[in-house]
Structures are given as structure tokens and as C-alpha cells.
Amino acid sequence: MDLHVSLVGRRDLAGQIYGQLRAAVLDGRLRAGEALPPTRELARRLAISRNTVGVAYDRLAAEGFLTSRVGAGTFVRETGSAARGASAASPLRPRGVWEGVSVWPAPMPGIRWDFRAGLPDVRLFPYEAWRRIMSGVLRPSGLADPASAADPAGLPALREAVARHVGVSRSVRASGADVVVTSGVQQALDLIVRVLLEPGDVVAVEDPGYPPVRMLLAAAGMRVRGVPVDAEGLRVDALPGEARAVYVTPSHQFPLGMPMSLPRRRALLDWARRRDVVIVEDDYDTEYRYGGRPVEPLQSLDEDGRVLYTGTFSKIMRPVLRLGFLVAPPSLHHAFRMARYVSSWHAELPAQAALARFIDEGLLARHIRRSRREYRARHERVAERVAGLPGDRLDLVPSEAGLHLSALLRDGADDAAVAARALGAGVGLFALSEFAVTGRPVAGLVFGYGAVTPPEIDEGMRRLAGVLRGRRGRS
């Protein structure tokens, strides 16, 4: 262990060393089995006599805090002490808004059949290819340009690769200069709030919608207004006139799943132009489209440069790879770069470099093609199994994209209670009412199929059928 001892004055040095080491053992900073520095090394570091350190060590050993092994060194003994936290008597208190913020989704212990939305199947990821690329990146020559690492907008190679990828796969108009690398859509939205909005501004979001977005906006001092959606997506006629920004998921509405119709998209762009409003387009999983005509993003229809386009790679690749991006017009390049700089500077550089190579070598496109085939089969299987659930109680919301499907409960049942009973049977899924913003919650269930295999889908749905019949299902 690299032990740092601060000595005040020169009296009773052995006592000071003893006291600080004893306190470190008791409050858990030094753990059982951890090696202490040799007396010679610690004495040299502190510029004191080796005998002084030896006296402190001997006293601690006599009291049962340390043990010595010939030829091995001096180690901390088990004391049964737990780590001590910071002082509970602090007068510091958070702003009131943080009292109402909690992690979403809440933990779901006991899941065996995981239908939670938004989870990809990490088993489909090409680990060998990624490991090869990461090994190359981590060599001394892997990040050879120190100047590129200083750009808070991200590595130029990744920004160029992202621009090409979204241009081909999503019809987004962007150059590398328009791309800011983020740690995900949440950080992209945080940057947008910092750059374009003021505390107290009204931000319109889809209702139902993604809970962490409204949490972030509320924590930043925004006034969040839910706007209802229908079969064509966000209802433009219900947008609040005082809104300064609109957050939408037009390619695959989250969580219901329908795309925003072309007339509705054009109406939203026209509304935003007339009222000088910024549109935040979250295109979180559009690579996974299984049928119908491709949906043109708002960003490519936008002629005024007021759509800020965001995306993430966590749904395509792995959730632990926290990399996303923001596409912004030239008028905002400097501001976003500086906002990125003052908040967190840049995302992890080795991962950025590896992702750039992963895209440039065609591996991302290949992975999307392969995983799309698998997810299409799961999409169809879930749709069939939902249609066959007992009692004719669920109406499936039409959707041809993404990693989840939603279904409405016809009889207005308590969907949270259904989800809780399902969890008791080992089936994890979300109640649709969890996603309500300001309007009346819609009762239903959300079925994610990214993390479940086809056999798991069949068994999970069998157990859910038992729940809907009023029993837990046979184990």
C-alpha cells in the first residue's frame, strides 16, 4: 500500500504513526490482509528514524492490529471493523429538486426472463474483433496524436466515422465537424440545456416518454410539459405555446413504438420555425427497422438548422460502452465544444479510437446486419406470443423497429400490479404507466426482446399468461 503519513511537529513521532495507522485500520481504509510498507521504506519516505517506525509497528502488533510474517512483511489483521463514511453532521443540504430524483429503472431482483426494454443482447456482440481493435489502440502508437486527444468534441477520426455512419444508415446530413462525441443521449441533452436554455424555460416532451429525460430537465431547472401522442406520433396541436424546446423520438416513439408520420413531422418543423424553438431528435435505435418504408429523420427534413440530432451506440453494441453523439449546426459548434470542455472534457479516448476503427473496418455495419436478423425474429415471436395471451386483454401497438413492443391493457387493469406479479414469477418487464409525464397514465405492458432468446421468450410468455390468469405459473 502507498501509505501517506502527515506528521505535525517532531514530538512523539512513533505515537503519531501509531495513531494514524490505528485509525486507518479501524475505519476500514486499511483492510484485513493489506500489506504495510517495510519500516525502512516508510522511514525513508517520512525522513525519520527506522526505529521510530518500528516502535509504532510493534505497538500495533501487540494490540492485535498487525501481524508479521518472516520474509513476507507486515500485514493488517482482521478486526471486524466496517469502513467509516463521511461525517453525518454536515450542514450541507442538496437543492430540493434532488429529493424527487431516483435511479430509473428501479432494481428488479429475481428476474429469470428479462423483458425489460432497452437492453441489447450482449451475446451477439463480436468480442474477438473488438478485443483485437482495443489491443491495437492500447499500444503506445495507438493514440499517436496528442493534439487530437485535447479536442473536447471528440477524436476527429471518430467524429468523421460517426458522420459517415449516420449519413449512410440514417440519412443524416452531417460532416465530422458537426459531431460532438458524448457519453450518451443523456449527456447530449445536458449539453443542449447548458448551451441553449435558461432555468425556468418550458421544455415539451412526449407523454408517455423516457423518464430520465424529464428527470434531467427538471434537475436543470426546466419546466417540463408532457404532450400527448397518438397513432401519428407527437400531437403538434397540443404543444405549449411557451415552449423553448421540444424533445421527441420520431423514428420509434418511446415507449409506444409508432413512428411520427411525415405530415406530423412537417407540422412540427413548421411550428418550431414560426416560434423559434429548438427540436431535440433522439434517434436511439433506428438501425433496427424490420419492415415498412424507412423513416426520414427530422434532421434531414430541417431547412432551418433548428434540429439537434442525438444518438447512442449502447443499444447497438453494449450498454457499458457509454458513447453517443450530438449533431449540431455550425453556429453552435464552438459553444458545444466549450460546454463539453467545462463539464467533462471528453469521453474515454481508447474507446473512441476503437469505435472509429470498428466503424471504418465495416464491423459495425456487419454487426448491425447480423443482429437485425436476430432481433427481427424475436420481434415477430413476441408479437405472436402477446397476441396469444389469455383473455384477449392486450392490444399490441403496431411497431416495426427497435428492441421492444408495447401493448395496451383493454380493461384498464392496474399495469403496475400486473408487472409486480410477473416479477414474482421471474418475469421482468415495465408497466406502461411508469412512462407517464403529466397526463393520465396509459395502462399497458412494455416487452423488450433484446436480452431474451426465443426459447426464453416462449417460457417467459407462458409464465406471464399464468399471471394474467391470476396465478404465478408453474415453476
From TrEMBL:
Protein name: Transcriptional regulator, GntR family
InterPro entries: Aminotransferase_I/II_large, HTH_trans_reg/aminotransferase, PyrdxlP-dep_Trfase, PyrdxlP-dep_Trfase_major, Tscrpt_reg_HTH_GntR, WH-like_DNA-bd_sf, WH_DNA-bd_sf
Family: In the C-terminal section; belongs to the class-I pyridoxal-phosphate-dependent aminotransferase family.
Gene3D superfamilies listed in its UniProt record: Type I PLP-dependent aspartate aminotransferase-like (Major domain), Winged helix-like DNA-binding domain superfamily/Winged helix DNA-binding domain
Domain HTH gntR-type, residue spans: 11-79
Gene Ontology molecular function: DNA binding; DNA-binding transcription factor activity; pyridoxal phosphate binding
Highest taxon listed in the record's lineage: Bacteria
Keywords noted in UniProt: DNA-binding, Pyridoxal phosphate, Transcription, Transcription regulation
SMART domains: HTH_GNTR
Pfam families, A to Z: Aminotran_1_2 (PF00155), GntR (PF00392)
Organism of this sequence: Actinomadura mexicana
